[in-house]
Specification:
about 260 residues, alpha+beta, six-stranded antiparallel beta sheet, two-stranded antiparallel ribbon, elongated
């Protein structure tokens, strides 16, 4: 290198072998969420703490790579280049395959839908969705993520972890999503109830919606949760009891299949 030549610090590897520029680009991509699908340069700068000029340069570069798309006069959104990448990740997930032939019993109840979600850090990522013949408006779809502690499937998955790990993940998701922390005692109490019964009932995610979630674990690992969701009015005590029993049975069978394949 010529003496005095300037280099871009963001392009230089850190001492631990990681590249700072890549970490910054990942931080930009991770800003986007279902509640914030379009972000301005100012919003990304505020969320990441990265200087505005660097954020602009990263966004332009990510647009060139089709990982972001520019939204005129509004900012940026995730790009179509992420679709085949995400598809490859979903394709290798055995979780959805392990549910094959088991979810029909859950969709026989008119008006509900079934979500299969994987626990990833403090989030539940919906891998698949199945609906009954007559169902109301469906708010969730495959590929969306939500803070785990705000969904039935996510709470069910968290119930397989100890309390300290639960709260570590909850704090991570709340910080990333700029959400207030939940009432810790209430949340952990609900998870304790779920550990005893085998399922969690939750109405935290959408107004007027209720969900029942059961955890799925395999070979001592937490995989995620399966949930049934529908209008609160459908969940009479009889329907709730019937669906919960079916759900716990299905989740256990899925866990057995996953354990056998590992």
């Amino acid at each position: 290198m010529i003496s005095g030549e300037m280099t871009d610090p963001a392009a230089s590897p850190e001492k631990n072998g990681r590249v700072q520029a890549v970490a910054k680009a990942a931080a930009v991509l991770n800003c986007f969420a279902p509640r914030t699908p379009v972000l301005s340069i100012r919003e990304i700068t505020r969320a990441t703490g990265i200087p505005r000029s660097t954020v602009h340069a990263l966004c332009v570069t990510l647009v060139d790579a089709r990982l972001l798309e520019e939204v005129p006069r509004r900012g940026y959104q995730l790009g179509l280049g992420l679709v085949p990448l995400g598809g490859q990740v979903l394709a290798r997930q055995s979780f959805v395959e392990a549910t094959e032939g088991l979810l029909g019993a859950l969709t026989r109840e008119n008006g509900i839908w079934v979500l299969v979600g994987q626990l990833v850090d403090g989030w539940i990522v919906h891998l698949a969705r199945y609906v009954s013949e007559r169902h109301g408006p469906v708010n969730s779809r495959a590929g969306l993520r939500a803070p785990a502690h705000r969904t039935a499937g996510g709470k069910a998955a968290l119930s397989l972890l100890d309390d300290a790990e639960v709260m570590r993940r909850v704090r991570l998701a709340c910080a990333a999503e700029r959400l207030p922390l939940p009432d810790e005692a209430a949340l952990l109490g609900q998870l304790d109830d779920g550990r005893r019964s085998g399922y969690v009932v939750s109405a935290d995610w959408r107004p007027g919606r209720l969900a029942i979630g059961a955890p799925v674990g395999a070979a001592d690992a937490v995989v995620g949760g399966i949930s049934v969701v529908g209008p609160s009015s459908l969940f009479t005590p009889q329907v709730t009891g019937r669906l919960a029993a079916r759900l716990v049975s299905v989740a256990a069978r899925v866990g057995e299949r996953l354990s056998a394949s590992r």
